[in-house]
Amino acid sequence: MLPPETELWNRVEAVVRGVFARYGFGEIRTPVFEDTQLFARGVGEETDIVSKEMYTWQDRQRSESGVGQSLTLRPENTAGVVRAYIEHKLADSGMLQKLYYIGPQFRRERPQRGRYRQFWQIGAEVIGPAWSGSDSAIRDAEVLEMLATLLDELGIKGWRLALNSVGSSTDRPRYVAALREALEPVKAGMCENCQRRAETNPLRVLDCKEPGDQAVIDALPKIAEYLDEASREHFAQVKAALDACGVAYVVEPRLVRGLDYYTRTTFEFTVADGSGLGTQNALLGGGRYDGLSEMLGGPKAPGIGFAIGEDRLILTLQAQMALAADATLGAKKLDAFIAPMGVAQNAAALVLAKELRAQGLTVEVGDGTFRLRKSFEAADKLAHRMVIVGEDEVSSGILTVKYFEAGEQTKVPRSELAQVLRG
Ligand code: HAM
Predict the structure, then answer these.
(1) Cα-Cα-Cα-Cα dihedral sign, residues 329, 335, 340, 343
(2) Taking the model in full, what pTM does it have?
(3) Ligand 1 centre and the CA of 76: distance in Å?
(4) Rounded to the nearest whole angstrom, what is the distance from the C-alpha of residue 306 to the centroid of ligand 1?
(5) Fold held by 5-157+262-323
């Protein structure tokens, strides 16, 4: 990633940090690698992520007697956050923990536009003991409303929120059993992946994109029919709160997501065609994971969170900005370029640059070996104005400022220079 694109990344991250602060989130920084078992147990052995996409290696043993440890570059960060929640006893405060992160994740996927082996996620998790209200539907609605606000503030247009409930840890086995039963007589006619998944992880069949399988999948039982009273009520409350906040959503019964820890609310935000993402149009995904902490050996700690694919967010912004012919796409010009007239003026030019930068201006310094013409060309490319530092300017304290856009040149006393350049 190079400038000026990194400028856009930084702007996005600044907006995101501002929104997170307003909603009471604090930043957590977890390690980039963790014990392999954390992901195997948290994300699920049968998921694509764990079964084929992780970068895993056997770390060398540290002593003769010790055994090597299997480590993995994090493919996602929810498991790491929950591990930290348990390890640092964050439950002890009795308070809801609202944590966000921005960082790289790693999956051995087939790279294409919007899908990389090292990609960035901006994510957040809300987790705490049940008595902190962590399992309440208001938390789900607040997270979704925050995401809608965040995308709007970033200027993402045409996003769509797909919502579903995958039920509690008791609803799911009943649904999975029903799926398995319904798949039994039809699976032979399905794609190879579906045939395998019908055995190992029937929920994943719902993710299949194979055109020939869609009619069969649409006729399978729907999870909504298997939700118990409490899950149904929870989902109804989430939807009612979203309606009250004016956040638009579409209920999608097939949205079960590719990680095993989800319970109840699951969601994805996509952007329409023409957004620069092509087939990788899932901008972000998330959901509730009420049993994850216990799965990892921790206390009961319901939670909900999401991760935005930052690469995809940037691609979408770039495509939408290009459509709107937004001028901010290009590199921003600096306030001034300082051109020393001769090597003897280099030090004086650097002193002037230091003064101006200390006053918050963006400044580049040339080199006294440049001929005037070369300084002109460099300055015109980089900055709005050029300040000439020659022997006369240094002794008189009156500087020559050239304005490229207006094609003018004026004399400015050193004491007024910063103000003039800012104007
Ligand atoms: P996920 O759906 O696996 O969920 O990933 C979230 C987002 O990360 C995706 O929607 C996509 O934008 C982006 N992403 C995933 N893989 C890639 C890739 N190879 N290249 C570029 N972008 C990618 C999770 O990771 C969960 N931890 C989210 C979550 C947080 N659920 C609860 N809390």
Answers:
(1) negative
(2) 0.90
(3) 7
(4) 8
(5) BirA Bifunctional Protein; domain 2 (3.30.930)
